[in-house]
Design brief:
The complex is a heterodimer of chains A (344) and B (359). With 344 residues, chain A is mainly α. Chain A has helices spanning 7-10, 12-19, 22-48, 84-120, 122-137, 140-152, 158-188, 192-199, 204-216, 220-243, 253-259, 261-265, 270-297, 339-343, and strands at residues 57-58, 61-62. Chain B has 359 residues and is an all-alpha fold. In chain B, helix 5 (108-143) crosses helix 14 (325-353) and helix 13 (312-321) packs antiparallel against helix 14. Chain B starts with 20 loop residues before the first helix and ends in a 6-residue tail after the last helix.
């Protein structure tokens, strides 16, 4: 490890912010700003949204369906008579909730399985690798559909709906965390400090969590941003196929887009464009951050400062770059040409 | 110091070591791995779908009186132990029987043969778009690295990824079909074209091929005009992936010693890019195509729904809506098998092209 730096600059994104220059810094900053706005809107949704997500009328009577944007409804109303702006704003909450639940769960399960499997090896490891590879190769949306059917039977309340979407996404993501953490663990367990810990009699759980896990987590921020964006896309995809959250119990962008298919044909653009843009913007923010972290971690892609103010190299250059079935943002080629490592 | 030479994708075209042992063994291992993969996926789908109870209650519950419901469940054998049903299901799949849809009594295999062609056609167009857009733009971005075209192209690639296919589809529809009126809104062909295509004897189901066999220019034109928007919506997603992949790897290969050597020999820049740096940078594309096919199939479900393109994905969404979980389970399991098989083929091709893949 490099010399100790202040805690703040050792935090994942903050550190990269200092390290980056030029275009890369621009991309990273843009991404961070978009994510910040997304979080802010999600937290302040009740204050920002002019109406409730399921509100159909106010004192002046019903909103009316498919009303074009006006001063009362800045972004118009949907075919179901909801206010588009309000549903876009409330939608951030659903999205955030699903991301947090899904990523937290897959992180927890995937990381533990990865560390244990990579460290212990043996038949358990082999079985887990084969299972993870099988799930990994499967179209994630289809898997999410199956899990969503299981959990909700197709439709549900906000909580049930969010949980269903989150769990479906979790199942899809576990193999990704598993693969990355396992690969790191396999690499780390042959290092001298692990052997040293074993020699002085540290217990296996202690080695796993104190020595291996702490050193295997450096790729997680990257994977986290990628999966968060994928979680949004999967949630929207599920919603688009009608597996979303009922409009009366929560606002979900993909579901609104599904309802807007018919509108598009008759030239009603506001019901689809705004929820769609919301998805694009959030995914864009996450991807920009993920992409920048990826590039900054790869010495071949990192733009450098001029020699006179070169910052001290931060640890060793990360070469293990995770790749997800649907995460084209990673340089998959770094991982894929080594099937021997993954499948051995 | 500027280049780390362990750049994985950057090796010049090496001659394969005397083939035989290495390759043969690799193919065998990969082939044997198909079976556990398919087995795991099929088992997973079966067990997951069965945890919600029997499909008949799911589809018809509330619509039929309880005693009739029970009668139909017994008839279909869903009241037997799950394990018995599971082994029966495995046996059926081995015989190529993926079940029969509850709502319209069509065998899933028949659904596949009827609608599979449409999905294949869409996936083919999409891949074509991805190659034509992604690879040249990726080369350009790598060559102009860190200048403004590179920045624009990278943002474009990220946007391609960040836009869900169905939203891309709706936007394309809004602009090109509704506002400009250039292209049809939905479907695979106009009604008159559909009727004419039915006259083709022994139709392949792939409209373009059938139209060409019909030899009628207006039919071909109609089929193609319907394909443009869905192909763009689905293809741009993959194009973004290819763009960044080609860019990353071209940056690697462009800084290799042999490229410098060629440049110092006076090889013109255009030839340098096209011949020397480009070919090795394509190898990773082959290796990710397997994953991309899985992604295309997932995306096809959404694209087909957006454009009422009557393929497998459209049917899947329809059966989902009807809560016909036997059909859903069948289609999903079938797709899993297809994905596993294509991955195998792609891995073999990758191993043939790039000897470093097989150890």
């Amino acid at each position: 490890m490099a010399a100790r730096r202040p805690v703040l600059s050792r935090l994942p994104v903050v550190h990269q912010l200092r390290q980056s220059v030029g275009l890369q810094r621009g991309m990273l900053v843009t991404g961070v700003v978009i994510i910040g706005m997304f979080l802010l809107v999600a937290l302040l949704a009740p204050l920002l949204a002019p109406y409730g997500f399921a509100q159909l009328r106010d004192e002046d009577g019903a909103f009316g369906a498919q009303q074009p944007p006006s001063s009362e409804h800045l972004l118009g109303t949907t075919v179901g008579g909801y206010d588009v702006l309000s549903r876009v704003i409330w939608g951030t909450r659903t999205a955030l909730l699903v991301i947090v639940v899904a990523v937290a769960m897959s992180l927890f399960v995937g990381v533990i399985l990865g560390v244990v499997s990579g460290y212990l090896g043996g038949w358990l490891d082999r079985i887990l690798v084969v299972v993870a590879d099988a799930v990994y190769a499967f179209p994630s949306l289809l898997l999410a559909i199956v899990v969503a059917i299981v959990i909700s039977g197709g439709q549900s309340s906000v909580f049930g709906g969010v949980l269903a979407a989150a769990i479906s996404i979790t199942v899809v993501f576990i193999p990704q965390y598993f693969r990355v953490i396992r690969a790191e663990t396999v690499r780390i367990k042959s290092e001298a400090f692990v052997e040293a810990a074993r020699v002085i009699g540290a217990s296996t759980p202690r080695i796993l969590f104190k020595h291996v896990l702490r050193n295997a987590t450096r790729t997680l921020p990257l994977l986290f941003t990628l999966n968060a964006s994928e979680a949004i896309l999967t949630l929207a995809g599920l919603g688009f196929l009608g597996f979303g959250i009922e409009p009366t119990s929560g606002a979900e962008w993909g579901f609104d887009l599904n309802r807007a298919i018919g509108d598009v044909t008759s030239g009603i653009w506001w019901t689809s464009v705004f929820p769609g843009l919301a998805i694009v913007l959030v995914v864009l923010g996450m991807t920009l951050v993920g992409e920048s972290l990826n590039d900054l971690a790869d010495p071949r892609l990192r733009a450098r400062r001029r020699a006179d103010n070169t910052p001290p190299p931060a640890g060793d250059p990360v070469s293990v770059v995770p790749g997800g079935a649907n995460s084209p943002t990673t340089s998959l080629q770094d991982e894929l040409p080594n099937p021997g490592e993954v499948r051995a | 110091m500027t280049t780390t030479t362990d750049a994985p994708a950057a090796a010049p075209t090496k001659k394969p070591r005397s083939a035989g042992g290495g390759l043969g063994r690799y193919i065998l291992v990969r082939f044997l791995l198909i079976f556990p993969t398919i087995f795991i996926l099929v088992t997973m789908v079966f067990l997951l779908m069965r945890t919600i109870g029997d499909p008949i209650t799911a589809a018809l519950g509330g619509r039929l009186p309880p005693d009739q419901l029970r009668e139909r469940i017994a008839e279909a054998g869903y009241d037997r132990p799950v394990l018995v049903q599971y082994f029966e299901y495995l046996g059926d799949i081995l015989r190529g029987d993926f079940g029969t849809a509850l709502t319209d009594n069509r065998p899933v295999t028949e659904i596949l043969t009827t609608f599979g062609a449409a999905t294949v056609e869409l996936a083919f167009y999409a891949l074509l778009v991805a190659f034509l857009v992604g690879i040249p733009l990726g080369m350009l971005a790598a060559y102009l690295r860190d200048r403004w075209p590179d920045a624009v192209l990278r943002v474009f690639a990220i946007l391609c990824y960040a836009t869900p296919v169905f939203f891309a589809g709706l936007l394309l529809k809004l602009v090109f079909s509704v506002a400009l009126g250039w292209l049809p809104v939905a479907g695979r062909a106009g009604t008159r074209t559909e009727l004419r295509l039915q006259n083709v004897d022994d139709p392949t189901g792939i409209y373009l091929i059938d139209a060409i066999r019909l030899g009628n220019a207006s039919v071909i034109g109609d089929v193609l005009s319907h394909a443009v928007l869905p192909a763009l919506a689905l293809g741009l997603l993959t194009a973004g992936v290819f763009l960044r992949l080609v860019r990353t790897n071209m940056i690697g290969t462009l800084s290799m010693d042999y490229v410098d050597a060629a440049r110092s020999r006076g090889v013109p820049e255009s030839r340098l890019v096209r011949k020397h740096a480009y070919r090795p940078a394509l190898i990773p594309i082959v290796t990710v195509i397997g994953l991309q096919i899985a992604m295309l199939l997932g995306g096809a479900v959404l694209t087909e729904t957006t454009f009422e393109w009557e393929g497998l994905g459209f049917q899947l969404a329809r059966y989902l809506g009807a809560r016909d979980f036997v059909a859903v389970q069948g289609i999903v399991a079938l797709l899993a098998v297809i994905v596993a098989l294509t991955n195998f083929v792609v891995d073999i091709i990758a191993a043939l092209i790039d000897p470093r893949v097989r150890f």
